[in-house]
Design a protein that fits this description.
The complex is a heterotrimer. Chain A has eleven helices and no strands. By secondary structure, chain A is an all-alpha fold. Chain A has one domain. Chain B is an alpha+beta fold. Chain B is globular. Classes of the chains: A mainly alpha, B alpha+beta, C mainly alpha. The interface between A and B is medium-sized, with 28 and 30 residues.
């Protein structure tokens, strides 16, 4: 139990520390792929540092909701990161929340951010909130389907148990997971505001989805929201790793095993980040009315994955 | 329309359509100004002013031929303490340009409006009122345009009476004048329903500097520097048009070498702008790869310009009487080779872009301006050629050196962003071909002649096909002994015609496509606000 | 090891079905051709793997034939055709894409349901392959119905044929060599006839749909 708590704490700290670095790594890979000079890996940390030191300016007509949302969103993402098995599957906190709650927490964060964006009453915030909700309500069922496909094999909705089963079963290739994997990749791109659904580096307010929600935030509020966004990307990457590439997790709770699991995680995240950067570099952003189509495809693929699992048992 | 056989002169084509209004038959009293381009000048009465506009507009609507369409190019006002204020308009006809001056004897009575005939004249007339205080009578829209502070009630953007769309679910999005990127100021008011744009209204004039008035306080020879700063991305075109006008007024003919070098600079400017804009358009569609590639090509190109003439954007290189720089044959030859090498790289990038399914999905049928709409609104220049309006001064009124180069004018009929990208690619490659030709054919001789202005008052006009469209400069000089001055001078940027079309191009599109559509036109704020 | 290879064939069949869906929803001709080539490549790998597992030499020959014909020759021919006819344009569908997608989903359910009892009888190869391959065939059918232009319809037909081959490989270790050769020659001749036919059609009377995009002076 004590070791379990230590593992949990290590996983939590690793998430907080690694999440901005993952975003920095993706930005770095993108720059390289575009023949640009890359910013340093720790650039997101520098930006966070800068924002935390800055004065926080809040719109005059902002309600308490607007002020509390950054902390709440950050808390949601932090909890999400603690219940995903990143280093080991022995997570004492994992009993608190299963995969369904995980999707719920992500939805809660989205709703809070959208409400805050509408709170100040600017046109861009409302525009962004509307678009983000559209992406969200189409993306959540897909994520649930993917998680259910994996949960069916493990006969449990707890992420820790699912990954435990997936990581320790006999080596088997499951076609259902191929479909689920593609669907999950598509939905992760949409949920994290990456190309082709949203462009995280744009400065054009009219085209923004996720960025438009945070236009009115500044200083420490903005720092928390940006940190939460990096945590979200980290969480999605870790879910992907846990479901589709669970090898390399710590087998037991000894400190040595946990520490050995860290480089494995970093290596997998690096590969994942590189793949994300490649996907973003080769594709253009789609029109916003294509997004429902795109997520519809993801949903169909997720359902087929589940069907293969149920009907064909593969 | 197929690219015309270059051996066929413009007169032969025009002869095939005898019913078309021409300067020679329709305006026999117009005086041909000195200079190579057939620009005619006439002082008219208010009745003739409107009749001329009506006649030309009728032609613009009816004629679909290979000749340049009849069109309004510019409209401006000028005031001088010593005489009546003048309203001036320039029309394009198949056999040349026609410049009409209308003296306004009674400023309170104004002058007849032509905004019901030529759509975009409305804004120019509003600008005339702002600048010289003479109203166009019968115009539907009399709101202030350039001078925001003179809006009597409220000078701020909120006080400007934007047209509102009423209805359930319709809301307004205000963008600008301060934008997120490093771009010029302009205000856009969208009326949207969901993501769909029902109406867009622009508000410009934030960079109004009073260029026309500033001209009159400068030495005519020196003022070419100011002309080159009307719109930074078209500095060569504006400076050349000004110099052409001044040389026309002075009745001098610049040497052959100077003209060829000017063309060399103009095509370099076109290449640089198309490279930059293609990258930006692709970036607005979310493909950052395109931006870095085109930016790289543009940067190399600009550095080469600096090496050739000492300025990246080639400012102040075109001066009255010729050009300010000279190059030796070896540098020219290597510049021609570089143009050929660039063409190969552009072809490569074009193949990638044409094959990119996601990108093409964004570009196709976005921001469509049909040929009919473009004719009605007077779309011009590169954007016009993307909407089926084949109009290119280099091609339709070829003078030195274009006549010797047989310029191929690009044209597409679809009128969407994809068509504008295609036209930009075609023009880019054609410009590179022209540069290769020019590099080996620049004649020897002096590159500059001293300009001596003749005594008395003289009008002069110049027009150049810049990368965005026709740039026109009309001026009048007065020389009294050693006293030289510009009585009046006006620089016209084609952005005047195309800004109103943007309002129509976005209708029915979705809000997030606006930056993409806007960038595909890439109109000038500075050139419009003057 | 054999079990793993069996699962791998199942996985390849799933990837092939994924690509069939990609074909179904793709709007651009050239991308469709690329997807078809990829799907054929998956078929090549599947066939070779089945050949290695079962020790049947003729499956290698079949894989090589598929590679030459469907991964290289036909896609190259189609691309040339597109370029020469300036047909590279968006695909217009009879039914809206989301609807098509839902119909595809229903077909998959149907195929899986039908295949399950059959797969239980057969002990030859992977259990899932038949259902997935059948779904691929049905998706090909659907694509042929919902597309209104010639080239996507041909691609749909070819994708369907890929599904048939996949089913044959997965369930019965491939068809007899004579049949495979016959089909291969048939497909090739079909594509050639299509090419000649389309070229003549185009030069005789360019259809408005094909030329509207070409513009004027370009």
């Amino acid at each position: 139990m004590l070791h379990g708590l230590a593992g949990q704490a290590l996983a939590f700290v690793a998430a907080l520390a690694l999440a901005p670095l993952l975003s920095g790594w993706v930005a770095q890979c993108r720059a390289w792929l575009q023949n640009r000079t890359a910013p340093p890996l720790w650039q997101p940390w520098l930006v966070l540092h800068k924002r935390l030191l800055r004065e926080t300016v809040v719109a005059e007509n902002a309600s308490p909701l607007f002020r509390s949302v950054p902390a709440l969103v950050f808390a949601c993402m932090a909890i999400v990161c603690t219940i995903i098995p990143t280093l080991s599957t022995d997570l004492p906190l994992a009993v608190v929340a299963d995969a369904v709650v995980l999707v719920g927490l992500l939805a809660l964060a989205r709703v809070l951010l959208s409400l805050a964006a509408m709170d100040v009453g600017t046109a861009f915030g409302t525009l962004g909130a509307r678009r983000d909700m559209m992406v969200g309500f189409l993306a959540e069922p897909v994520l649930l389907m993917v998680l259910f496909t994996a949960a069916l094999g493990a006969r449990s909705t707890s992420l820790a148990s699912i990954v435990d089963v997936l990581a320790h079963r006999e080596l088997a290739i499951m076609p259902s997971l191929a479909f689920a994997g593609v669907a999950f990749t598509m939905v992760s791109l949409a949920e994290n505001g990456r190309i082709p659904v949203d462009n995280p580096t744009t400065h054009l307010e009219l085209t923004m989805i996720h960025e438009a929600l945070t236009l009115e935030y500044s200083g420490q509020h903005l720092a928390l929201i940006e940190w939460a966004a990096t945590l979200k990307l980290f969480a999605y990457s870790c879910i992907g790793i846990a479901l589709f590439c669970p090898w390399g997790l710590a087998a037991d709770d000894t400190p040595l095993a946990l520490l050995l699991a860290v480089p494995a995680l970093v290596a997998k995240l690096a590969i994942g980040g590189m793949l994300l950067a490649i996907a973003e570099t080769v594709s253009a952003k789609m029109r916003i009315f294509r997004v429902p189509e795109y997520l519809g495809i993801a949903f169909v693929l997720a359902v087929i994955g589940m069907l293969i699992h149920i009907l064909l048992g593969a | 329309m197929k690219p015309r056989d270059p051996s066929l002169g413009p007169d032969q084509t025009a002869d095939a359509l005898p019913h078309q209004l021409r300067i020679a038959s329709g305006f026999p009293n117009a005086r041909r100004l000195p200079g190579e381009l057939p620009i005619h000048h006439q002082v008219v009465k208010p009745v003739q002013w409107r009749d001329a506009a009506l006649g030309i507009a009728r032609d613009a609507a009816s004629v679909i031929s290979d000749a340049a369409p009849a069109r309004l190019i510019a409209l401006w006002g000028s005031s001088d303490t010593r005489s009546h204020p003048l309203a001036s308009a320039v029309f394009g006809l198949p056999d040349g340009l026609l410049w009409l001056d209308l003296p306004i004897t009674d400023p309170d009575a104004g002058y007849p409006s032509v905004s019901d005939i030529f759509h975009f004249a409305g804004r120019m007339q509003r600008a005339v009122f702002d600048l010289i205080g003479v109203r166009a009578m019968g115009a539907a829209d009399e709101r202030r345009w350039l001078h925001h502070e003179r809006n009597a009630d409220n000078p701020s953007a909120e006080g400007y009476p934007f047209v509102k769309v009423e209805g359930a679910g319709v809301h307004e999005i205000a963008v600008g004048p301060v934008h997120a990127g490093i771009i010029e100021p302009g205000h856009f008011r969208f009326q949207v329903s969901g993501e769909k744009v029902l109406r867009l209204e622009e508000r410009l004039g934030y960079t109004h500097k009073g260029i026309d008035a500033r001209y009159t306080r400068l030495e005519p020879i020196e003022a070419s520097r100011l002309a080159g700063r009307v719109s930074g991305d078209s500095t060569v075109a504006h400076a050349w048009a000004y110099c052409m006008a001044l040389e026309s007024a002075a009745g001098i003919d610049p040497p052959d070498r100077a003209i060829w070098l000017r063309a060399f600079l103009l095509e370099r400017e076109r290449v640089a702008n198309h490279l930059g804009d293609l990258g930006a358009i692709i970036n607005d569609a979310g493909l950052a790869f395109g931006l870095t590639q085109f930016s790289r090509l543009r940067e190399v190109w600009l550095r080469e310009s600096q090496a050739l003439c000492g300025h990246r954007l080639m400012m102040d290189q075109v001066i009255p009487g010729g050009v300010a720089f000279d190059v030796d044959t070896t540098s020219l030859a290597s510049a021609g080779k570089a143009a050929g090498a660039l063409a190969a790289q552009v072809q490569l990038l074009r193949a990638i872009i044409d094959r990119h399914a996601g990108l093409q999905d964004r570009l196709r049928s976005t921001g469509t301006v049909t040929t009919a709409l473009a004719r009605r609104l007077g779309l011009t220049g590169m954007a016009g050629r993307s909407s089926g309006i084949a109009c290119d001064l280099r091609y339709h009124l070829p003078s030195r050196p274009w006549a010797a180069l047989s310029v191929q004018s690009a044209c597409q009929s679809a009128g969407d962003v994809a068509a504008r990208v295609t036209v930009r690619f075609d023009e880019l490659l054609e410009s590179l071909r022209l540069l290769e030709c020019i590099a080996v054919r620049v004649p020897a001789g002096p590159h500059h002649l001293p300009v001596k202005l003749p005594q008395g008052r003289h009008c002069g006009a110049g027009a150049v096909e810049g990368w965005r469209g026709e740039v026109f400069v009309g001026l009048e000089i007065e020389v009294d002994g050693t006293q030289q001055r510009l009585v009046r001078c006006h620089s016209h940027d084609p952005s005047w015609q195309n800004w109103p079309v943007l309002e129509h191009a976005i209708i029915g599109n979705i809000v997030p496509d606006f930056p993409l559509i806007n960038k595909s036109f890439n109109l000038s704020y500075a050139g419009h606000d003057l | 090891m054999n079990a793993l290879a069996l699962q791998f064939i199942d996985l390849l069949a799933a990837v092939s079905l994924l690509l069939a869906f990609a074909l179904l929803i793709q709007r651009r001709f050239s991308a469709m051709i690329d997807f078809y080539a990829t799907q054929s490549l998956v078929l090549v790998i599947t066939t070779s793997l089945a050949g290695w597992m079962t020790g049947q030499r003729h499956l290698y020959l079949s894989a090589a034939l598929t590679f030459v014909l469907k991964v290289v020759l036909i896609p190259v021919l189609m691309h040339t055709l597109l370029r020469r006819l300036h047909l590279d344009s968006t695909v217009d569908t009879v039914v809206k894409l989301p609807t098509t997608l839902l119909m595809g989903l229903l077909l998959v359910i149907f195929a899986f349901g039908v295949a399950r009892p059959i797969a239980q009888l057969s002990t030859a190869l992977a259990s899932g392959t038949l259902g997935i391959a059948l779904a691929g065939v049905l998706i090909g059918f659907l694509m042929m119905i919902t597309r209104s232009r010639a080239i996507p319809q041909v691609l749909a037909f070819l994708a369907m044929e890929n599904g048939v081959f996949l089913a044959a490989t997965g369930v019965t270790h491939g068809m007899p060599m004579v049949v495979e050769l016959g089909i291969a020659v048939d497909v090739l001749i079909g594509i050639l006839i299509l090419g000649v036919f389309l070229s003549h059609l185009h030069s005789a009377a360019p259809s408005p749909g094909a030329t509207a995009r070409e513009g004027d002076g370009a």
